[in-house]
Amino acid sequence: MKSNIQIPHIYDSYTRRKRQQRFYKIIIATWLATTELLIHSQQSVFAQLKPDHTLGAESSVVKPIDSFSDRIEKGATRGTNLFHSFTDFNVGANRSVYFANPAGIENILNRVTGGNPSNILGKLGVEGTANLFLINPQGIVFGKNASLDIRGSFIGSTANSIKFANGFEFNANGSQITPLLTISVPLGLQYGVSPGAIIVKGDGQGIRDKEDPIIDTTAGLRVKPNQTLALVGGDISLEGATLKTAGGRIELGSVGDHSFVSLTPINKGFSLGYEGVSHFQNIQLSQQAAVDASGLGAGDIQIMGKRATVTGGSRIESSTLGAATGGKLVINATELLEVIGRDSGLGAIVHPDATGKGADLTINTSKLLVLEASGVSTATLGSGKGGDLTVNATDSVQLIGNGTATGLGAASEGKGDAGDLTINTSKLFVQSGGAVSTITVGLGNAGNLIINATDSVQLIGNGTLTGLSAASESKGNAGELTINTSKLFVQDVSQISTSTRGTGKGGNLTVNATDSVQIIGSNANSGVASGLFASSHGGGEAGNLTIKTDKLLVQNRAIISTATVGAGKGGNLTVNATDSVQIIGNGGLYATSGVGFSVTSSNPDTTGDGGNLTINTGQLRVQDGAIVTVSAAGKGNAGNLEINSRSIHLDNNATISADTDTRSVNKDSNKPQATINIRSQDLILRRGSNITTNAKGNNVIGGNINIETDILAAINNSDIRADSTDFRGGQIKIQAQGIFGTEFRDAITAKSDITATGANPQLSGTVQIIIPDADPLSGLIDLPDNLLDAESLIGKDICSKEQIARGSSFTITGKGGLPAESDELISNSPGLVEWATRSEKQEILPLVFRPIERINNEKRNIPNHVIQQAQGWIIAADGKVILTAEAPKVTLQNAGLAHPSCHIYSSN
After folding, report:
1. Which terminus, N or C, of the chain has the lesser number of Cβ atoms within 10 Å?
2. Which of 79, 81, 84, 80 is nearest to 58 (CA)?
3. Per-residue pLDDT reduced to its tens digit, 704-754
4. Strands 890-891 and 848-849: what pairing?
C-alpha cells in the first residue's frame, strides 16, 4: 500500500503571510490634483452643515474653531439627553466637527431631516464622554479618511426615529420637542420604508499585523475601550473600511422596512436587539475591510443581516491580547454567510503573551459558504484558553478549497487549551482542499470536533487532500472527533482522522451514521488514501475508531485504519453495521503496529502494540483484493480480530488476516500471538481468498484461528493458514455442521488447504476440526410389532353375495389403486368402471368418529421426535384424508361410499 496518511489543517488561518506593504510613494502631480479636489469638496460640504431650526430657540449652532474645525453648540437639553437637528449634516475631508458636551449630558442625539445622505469625510467627535447618535433615513457615507474622536459610544443609523421609554420619538421628519418633556435613555431605533444604506470606505490597511498584533493601525472608525460602535441601517457595505474598538463592542445590523431595533445599556455601551425585525438586508465586507474588537480582553462583535459576505482579504476579528477574558463574536445571517478568497476570514485569537480566555465565535445562518483559501478559526498562541467555534446552519455548510486549504479550525500553539469546534447543520459538504480541524502544536490540549448533520456529510477531494481532523503535534492531547449523521460519504483523496505525532494522546474517532457510510478511493495514482484514520506516530496512544451504521461500503483502495508506528499503543477499530459491510477492491480495514500506508511511514522499530479489530454485522463481503487485518511489523504485538456475522463471503483474492512480520527484530515468544475469532452461519471462500495468521521472524509463532460456523466452504485455492516461516505453527480450531471444498493438509497446495505448518515438521502447529457425528437412525421411531394384515382386508371378496348378506362393503374408485389380490400388479385402468345399481333405495348413515383418548402429559415425558411414522388416518367431512400420529378409536357406522349392490345394516 503506497498511500500517505496526511492531515489537512486550517489553524494557519491566523498565521497567514504578512499583509501587503502600505503605499508610501505617491506621484507628486497626482497628490496635488487630489489636494485641489479635496479643497473644493471641503467648501461644498461645509456649506451643507446646516441646522434646520426645528428646535426653535434651542436650535443647533455651528461655530468655527479654526480653519479646519467646527463646534456644534446649543441644542435642546432634556434630562441627560441633548438633541440636535440638521437639514444637512456632512463633514468635509480633512476637517473636524465636534459636538460640545455640556455637564451632565450622557447622550447627544443628532437627526438629519433634509432628505439627503450624510457624507462624513473627515473627523467627527464629541468634546466630552457622551454617547453620539446620528440618524439619517436617507443614508450615511463614511469616506476613506473618515474617523471618530469619541470617548463614549457611537450609533450611526438610517432609522426614522429614536424611541424613548415614555413614548416620545425623536423623529427625522422634523417634529418639535415639548419644552417641559422629561426624557429617559433611548429605548430603540424605529425604521420606516426602505431604510437608507450605510457605506464605509477605507484604504484596506486596517488589518492587524499578525507578526506584531499589539501594534495596531490608526485607520478607520473607532471608539474607546469598553464602548460600542454600531452601524444599523439598510444595506451595509464596508469597502476597505476599518471599524475598531479595543475590547469594546461593534454592531453591524442591516434591517428591512418598519423594523425596530432595541437599545439596552450595558457595561460596554449598548447591546442591540433584533426581535422587532421581520426581515433583514445585506452586509458586505470587501477590499481588505476589517472589523476588529481585539483588546486586552477580546471585545464583542455582532453582525445581523440576511446575506453577509466577507471577501477580498477582509476580516472580522476579536482577539485577546492580555489577561482579560474575551467576549463573543456572533454572525447572524438569516439566508447566507459567505467567506471568500485568500486571507478572508473570521477569527478569535489568543495572542502569544496573552493569558486571558479567547472569544467564542458563533455563526447562525441558513447556509455557510467558505471558499478559496479563506478560513474561520479560533486559536490560542499563549497560555489562555482558546474560544469555542460553533456553526449553526439550518440548511448546509459548504467548504470548497478549489485546490487550496480552506475551512474551519480551532487550534492551540501555546500552553492554553484550544476550544471546541461544533457544526450543527442538515448537510456538510467539504470539497477540493476544504477542511475542518482541531489541533494542538504546543503544550495545550486540542479541542473536540463535533459534527451533527441530520442529512449527510460529504467529503470529495477531487485530487486535493480534503477532510476532517483532530490532531496533536506535540505534548498536548488531541481532541475527540464525533460525527452524527444519516449518511457519510468520503471520496477521492478525502480523509477523516484523529492522530498524535508527539507524546500527547490521540483522540477517539466516532461515526454514528443511521443509514450508511461509504468510503470510496481514487482511480488516480494520487499517493494519498481516502479513508478514516486513528493513528499514533510518536509516544502518545492512538485513539479508538468506532463506526455505527446500517451499511458500510469501503471501495477502490479506500482504507479504515487504526495504527501505531511509534511507541504509543494503536487504537481499537470497531464496526457495528446492522445490515452489511462490503469491502471491495484493494482497500480494507486495518489495525496495525509498525505498518503505515507508505514506505516512509512504516517503522520496524515500532514498540507500540496494535489495536483490536471487531466487526459485528449481518453480512460481510470482502472481495477483489480487499483485506481485513490486524498485523505487526515491529517489536509491538498485533491485536486480535473478531468477526460476528450471519454470512461471510470472501471472493477473488480477499483476505482476513492477523499476520506478524518481525524479521528485522527479535520477538519474545512468550508474548501472545495474534488471534482471529469468527462466528457465522455460513463462511464462504472463493478464488484465492484466505484467512491467515501467518508469522515471519525469529521466535514468532503463527497465530490462532477460531471459527464457529454452520457451513464452511473454501474453493478455487482458498486457504485457512496459521503458518510460521521461522518458528512454530499456530493453532486452528474449526467447529462446523459441514465443511466443503477444503481439508487439513501438511503443506500448502494448489487446492484449498487448512494448514498450520512450522519451520520444520517438529514445529508444526495444531489443527482441530469438529463436525457433529451424523446418526442415520436419529429421529426415527420403532414401528409397532403387531402390523395390520392388509391382505386380510383386500384379498377377500368382501362384496360377494355372502358378504353382502352380512352387510360388509369395501369400495375402490379411480385409476390404479390396490390390486384385487395381493399377488397381482397394480395396472392403469383403460377406462372408467361403471357403477352397478340396485333398485332399492339404501339408507346411508353418517360416519361417526369418537374422540381420541388423550394421555396426560404430566404423567409421562413425550420425546420430541424429529420424524414420526403415521399410525392411522381419518377422513374429514370434505373427504380429505388426514394421516395421524396415533390410530384413532372410531365406531364405524358405514364405509362412507358403498357399492349399490352391498346392503348396509345398522348395529344400533
Report:
1. C
2. 84
3. 999 999 999 999 999 999 999 888 999 999 999 999 999 999 999 999 999
4. antiparallel
DSSP, collapsed to helix, strand or coil, labels residue 149 as: strand
Q: Is residue 730 assigned to a domain?
A: yes
Alpha carbons 27 and 31: distance in angstroms, whole number: 6
Domain assignment present for residue 250? The answer is no
CA neighbor of 51 nearest in space, from 105, 114, 135:
114
C-alpha cell at 481: 472527533
- pLDDT: which is higher, 754 or 23: 754
Angle at 726 between CA 725 and CA 731, to 5 degrees: 65
E-state strands within 818-891: 848-849, 872-875, 881-884, 890-891
Q: Measured between alpha carbons, how far is 425 from 479 in angstroms, rounded to an integer?
A: 21
Question: Which of 715, 745, 770 is at the close of a domain?
Answer: 770
Instruction: Judge whether 596 lies within some domain.
Output: no
* C-alpha–C-alpha distance, residues 800 and 813, integer Å: 18
The owner of cell 498584533 is: 213
What does the block give as the cell for 415? 500552553
Collapsed DSSP state (helix, strand, coil) of residue 802: helix
Total count of domains within the chain = 2
Note whether 284 and 309 are within 8 A (CB): yes
Grid coordinates belonging to 296? 486586552
pTM of the entire predicted model: 0.81
Same domain, 906 and 786: yes
Compute the residue count for the chain.
908
The residue assigned the cell 425596530 is 260
Q: Which of 727, 750, 770 is the last residue of a domain?
A: 770
Q: Is 59 part of any domain?
A: no
Cα gap 582→294, rounded to integer Å: 52
Looking at the structure, do residues 904 and 789 belong to the same domain, yes or no?
yes
User: What residue numbers bound the domain in which 821 lies?
Assistant: 780-908
In degrees rounded to 5, what are phi and psi of residue 35?
-65, -40
Measure Cα distances from 820 to 251, 389, 760, 857 in Å. 111, 97, 76, 43
